[in-house]
C-alpha cells in the first residue's frame, strides 16, 4: 500500500470514528436532556392553592371565610421544590387567547386568536414545533381550545404540531370520558348527545383521573428513547362546578362566607361592565369548586409518584399554570375576562432539581406569554428572535438576581377584536387604561382587595407615568391595535403629556 492510500484509509477511519462519536454524543444528550411536563388547569383561582395562601395574610388567603380552605399538598410540593411566581398573569384572561400566547410566546393579537374559538396561526412555531425539532416526543392530553369551533373534536385538525394527539380534544368542559374500540369518547350522554354531566363517573372515568391515566401511560413508556414534552390540560376547575364523589360533598361543612368585595357598596370601574345578573353567593358552589381542586391535587400526587417510580421525575422540568382565574364571587362576579386579580392572576410554578434552585419565591410579574421562551431558556435551547414574551429562565432558576433598579412589567389586554382595556403590572401596581373610564391604579400592597382607585393620589404620579410609558412602548413595539383606539391613546397622552404619541405601528 502506498503512502497516499495509507493516509486515505487513516482519514476514513477517523471520519467513521467521528461520526460514531457524534452519534453517541447525540444519543447521550437525548437521554440526559430534561423532559418537560406542562400542567394546565382551567379557570383556577390562585388562592385555592396552599402554597399561595402561605405567602399571604390570612384575610387574603381565606377569601371565602376563615377556615374555608382546600388542602393541596401536591401542588405545594411542586412550589417547595421549585420556584413559585406570586405575580403571574394571564396575558389575556380568557381561554383561547391566553393559551395561544402561552404556547407561542407571542401576544394574542399576533397569533390569530384574540378571542375564544378561533384557529391558531400555524405559521408561528409553537413550543411543540420547537421541541419536535430538538428531538422530543411531544404529546397533548386534554383541552386544547385553539382549533376553532369543534366540540369536542378529538385529534383536532389544527393541533399545534404535537405528534401524539389521540387524547387531545378541541374544547368543552366534559366530566366523564371512556375508550371504545380504541377511541376516546364522552361517556356522559343525553340520548346521542354528549353532555357535561358527571353521570356516576369514578376514579377511572372522571375527566381529571382519566386524563392523568393517559399522561402516565405516555410518560412512563419504557420503550421510548427520546425525552418527552407532555401537556396535560385539565378542563377543571372550570364550571360547571361539579365533581365526582367523594369530592362532591367533602367540603360542604366548611364555614363559607361571601368575599369582602361581594356587594361592597364601592363604585365599580366601568371596564368591569354591567352584570347581566349579579350572582347570589352559594357556599355549596364553592364546596364543589374546592372539590375539583382537591381532585386535581390528588391526581398530581399520583402523577408525581408514578414518574418517580419510573425514574422520570428528577429529570423532568415541571411547569404548572392556568389559562385564567375565576373571581368566585369577588366584586359580584364569577369567572374571568377582566383585569381584577381573581380573574387575571394565575398560579405558575416551575420545578426541576438540577435547573432550578428549590424553595424560591419570585415576586416580579410574569405573563403567560413568557412561558414558551422561558422553557426554551431553561432547556438551553435556541430562542426565537420573534418571541415577544421574555425568557425569564436565568431569574427563575435562581442563577441571576433581579437588579434593584429594574422594575419588570407585564402587559395584559382584553380578549376580542374590540379594544376595551390594556393593563401594565409590576411587582406592586396595576394600571388599567380603558375605552370607557378614567385610568385605574390598584396598589396591591395597600389595597389588595382592589376596591380603591389610587390614580389621583399625588404620591402615585411617578408610578402612573412609569407604567403608562411602559404601556405606550409595549403597544408600539408589539403592534397592539388596542393602542390605536382614540380613547386609550388619549388617556395615555393625558398622563404622559400632549407631545407624546402612543399608537400601534401596524
Give structural notes.
By secondary structure, the chain is an alpha/beta fold. Mean pLDDT is 93; it is low at 17-29. It is built from 13 helices and 16 strands. Strands 4-3-9-1-10-11-2-12 form an 8-stranded mixed β-sheet, sandwiched between helices. It is globular and about 65 Å long. It has 2 domains: 31-396, Alkaline Phosphatase, subunit A; 418-496, Arylsulfatase, C-terminal domain (2-Layer Sandwich), CATH 3.30.1120.10. The protein has helices at 3-32, 50-53, 58-61, 73-80, 95-104, 127-133, 207-219, 283-309, 341-344, 371-378, 393-396, 461-477, 486-496; strands at 35-41, 83-89, 137-143, 168-169, 177-180, 183-186, 189-190, 193-194, 228-233, 316-322, 348-351, 360-367, 410-413, 421-425, 429-434, 440-443.
What's the quick description here?
With 506 residues, the protein is of the alpha/beta class. The protein has helices spanning 3-32, 50-53, 58-61, 73-80, 95-104, 127-133, 207-219, 283-309, 341-344, 371-378, 393-396, 461-477, 486-496, and strands at residues 35-41, 83-89, 137-143, 168-169, 177-180, 183-186, 189-190, 193-194, 228-233, 316-322, 348-351, 360-367, 410-413, 421-425, 429-434, 440-443. Helix content is 29%, strand content 16%.
